């Protein structure tokens, strides 16, 4: 019976849980040496914004079909990746579960951690065949969670997801930067990432849904605080990312200035939250104030995205302009 634990792989919750997990894995393998802010920027994860019409806390990770939502960012790093996931209620789940247990073990044997939906996202960093368990980090606790092989993928959300990584090609930094801006434009322009469900809006539409929920008064109080806290952090990440890469294009500096102005609004927004036990909650007397500030934030972000568009138009975009002979979608 085998056992393998990647001792120096440490995940800490500071950003979106996916970014926290990815940064822990890639810095451990030496495939990324930059800060978590740079990783959130290059992968486009910092730009993702999703809001449920009732401000449910699940909004923060409901930014699309996870495999497809994460793939462009990993591609932008030049890293090979494979993922699987779905609904645990499907009759074939037990087959996929057994298969996933095996390829997760193989990845760990190769010295590479695995992203796993706990929920939220965490890192599988070890296993023990004698007890048939995985060791999982959630980023909050110093002690790992214990996951039985037989319980792999099972959780209260009804969804499972797992992702492993392989070799890497070198991509020039300016090319990664340009693609990250294009990913930001895409996320801004697509209103609904989970069609036909229209309860969760993305990009600019997310702002409108957020404001409507606040003004209606019909929203989840816990979710309202969590979404706002996540928003403040991600928009701060964008500002820091653009500050790190500024100077490449004039329009990039102008976009950075927009996010610096947004930073002033974020300072206001943080004042609308109170600490309640281990979570941040929205103060009930600040909903209209927050709605008004969000309208201003949307206008600033729209302006910044327009600067991204100017930059994008300067260069050919083969990923989005080349249509295969068989049409927009390949045969499967």
Task: Pick out its properties.
two-stranded antiparallel sheet, Cathepsin B, Chain A, 7-stranded antiparallel sheet, 10 helices, 332 residues, 17% strand, alpha+beta, 2 domains
Give your account of this protein's structure:
The chain has 332 residues and is of the alpha+beta class. It has two domains: 121 residues, Cathepsin B, Chain A, CATH 3.90.70; 147 residues, no CATH class. 47% of the residues lie in helices and 17% in strands. The chain has ten helices and eleven strands. Strands 1, 3, 4, 5, 6, 7 and 8 form a seven-stranded antiparallel sheet that branches. Strands 2-9 form a two-stranded antiparallel ribbon. Helix 2 crosses helix 7. The longest helix has 27 residues.
Provide a quick synopsis of the model.
This protein has 332 residues and is α+β, with helices and mostly antiparallel strands. It has helices at residues 17-29, 36-42, 66-76, 93-109, 173-189, 203-216, 221-245, 250-270, 287-313, 318-321, and strands at residues 3-5, 50-52, 79-87, 114-117, 121-128, 133-137, 145-148, 159-168, 200-202, 273-276, 279-282. The chain has 2 domains: 3-33 and 79-168, Cathepsin B, Chain A, CATH 3.90.70; 173-319, no CATH class.
Quote the beta fraction.
Answer: 15-25%
Question: Would you report the number of β strands?
Answer: 11
- The topology string of helices and strands comes to EHHEHEHEEEEEHEHHHEEHH
- Helix fraction, binned, reads 40-55%
Number of contiguous helices? 10
Q: Flag low-confidence runs.
A: none
The geometry reads as: globular
- Tally of distinct domains: 2
Structural class: alpha+beta
Mean pLDDT across residues: 94
Q: Radius of gyration, Cα only, in angstroms?
A: 20 Å
Q: What is the first-to-last residue Cα distance?
A: 39 Å
């Amino acid at each position: 019976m085998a056992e393998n634990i990647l001792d120096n792989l440490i995940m800490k919750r500071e950003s979106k849980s996916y970014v926290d997990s990815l940064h822990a894995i890639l810095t451990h393998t030496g495939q990324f040496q930059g800060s978590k802010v740079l990783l959130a920027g290059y992968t486009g994860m910092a730009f993702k914004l999703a809001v449920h019409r009732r401000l449910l806390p699940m909004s923060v990770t409901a930014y699309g079909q996870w495999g497809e939502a994460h793939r462009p960012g990993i591609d932008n790093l030049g890293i090979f990746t494979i993922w699987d996931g779905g609904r645990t209620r499907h009759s074939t789940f037990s087959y996929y579960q057994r298969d996933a247990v095996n390829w997760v073990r193989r990845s760990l044997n190769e010295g590479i951690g695995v992203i796993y939906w706990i929920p939220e996202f965490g890192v599988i960093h070890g296993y023990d065949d004698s007890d048939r368990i995985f060791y999982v980090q959630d980023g909050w606790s110093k002690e790992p969670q214990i996951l039985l092989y037989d319980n792999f993928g099972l959780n209260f959300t009804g969804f499972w997801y797992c992702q492993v990584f392989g070799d890497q090609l070198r991509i020039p930094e300016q090319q990664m930067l340009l693609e990250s801006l294009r990913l930001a434009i895409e996320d801004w322009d697509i209103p609904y990432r989970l069609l036909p469900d229209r309860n969760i809006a993305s990009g600019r539409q997310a702002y409108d849904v957020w404001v409507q929920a606040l003004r209606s008064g019909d929203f989840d109080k816990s979710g309202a605080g969590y979404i706002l806290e996540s928003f403040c952090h991600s928009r701060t990440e964008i500002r820091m990312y653009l500050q790190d890469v500024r100077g490449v294009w004039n329009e990039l500096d102008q976009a950075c200035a927009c996010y610096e102005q947004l930073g002033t609004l974020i300072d206001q927004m943080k004042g609308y939250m109170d600490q309640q036990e281990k979570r941040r909650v929205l103060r009930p007397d600040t909903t209209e104030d927050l709605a008004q500030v969000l309208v201003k934030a949307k206008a600033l972000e729209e302006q910044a995205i327009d600067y991204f568009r100017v930059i994008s138009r300067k260069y050919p975009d083969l990923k989005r302009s080349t249509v295969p002979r068989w049409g927009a979608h390949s045969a499967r």
